[in-house]
Amino acid sequence: MGLALNDILGRLCSYNKDFSREDIAVTWINYKSENKKIFKGFGFGINNKKMIYPASVVKLVYGLAAYDWIKRGSLLLTEEIIDAASKMLSFSSNNATSFLIDLLTGTTSGPCVEGELWENWKFQRNLINDWLYDLRWDELTGINCCQKTWDDGPFGREKEFYGYENKNRNVMTTDSAARVLEEIMIHIDYQKNDLNLRNFLKRNLNKSFLENDSLNQIDGFLGAGLPENINLWSKAGLMSEVRHDSAWWINSQSLQTLLVVFCDGEKYSKETSLLPAIAKQVYEFNEKIL
Fold this sequence. Notes:
alpha+beta
């Protein structure tokens, strides 16, 4: 897998001189399953510990936090929370994300505040980071997931919380995104009344369906490089400086694949061919080894 991934990135970067391996981070894990039970994965990464702004991929973290808050009794599951989590993950709604972060941390956006109010607000907003630290997952070391996602950028206390030169903005690695997606996909035994995050990440690869959804998270992302008939779950991230995707799919037989790719740089934001090309070649490699 390591040789294959190096070869894939090498060829794609040689085809387009604007692409650089230094800007692309990948975590690729395959999982063997038997009798519907998935065993520990095996994989490879490139730049997979590099801290990168995750854009909307961070919503995986906020979804998992909401699930955990509810299971621990810190948050009451309501139809509104289900609707918000669905819109956050299925449609990448920033408004829904803002609502859930407010519930998780007991904070709200607004004008700047000072003194004890400001210190308490910052403490509360970091509750998600504190929870991540308490999980003690090695892949999460050093990441920062405490900021809302925006259409036009933060204002007021949210802008101040970003810090000087945005030093407090969200950062993740492809390994951390992969670990969170793995948790959502195979380590949670969802019950009838749970916040079923996995359902919210399911994607439809039918081309006629995608044509009617201009904001789909397939075109220009990993799913666009996969066969139309496979099962795919994913969460993309896109803004003016990055293009990312995190995906889980089932291959033609028992193998399942987790692939996270972060492309860091303005040149990748409008580049719609790279992520599908990586997914296509990873899929074809897996089909050959089955």
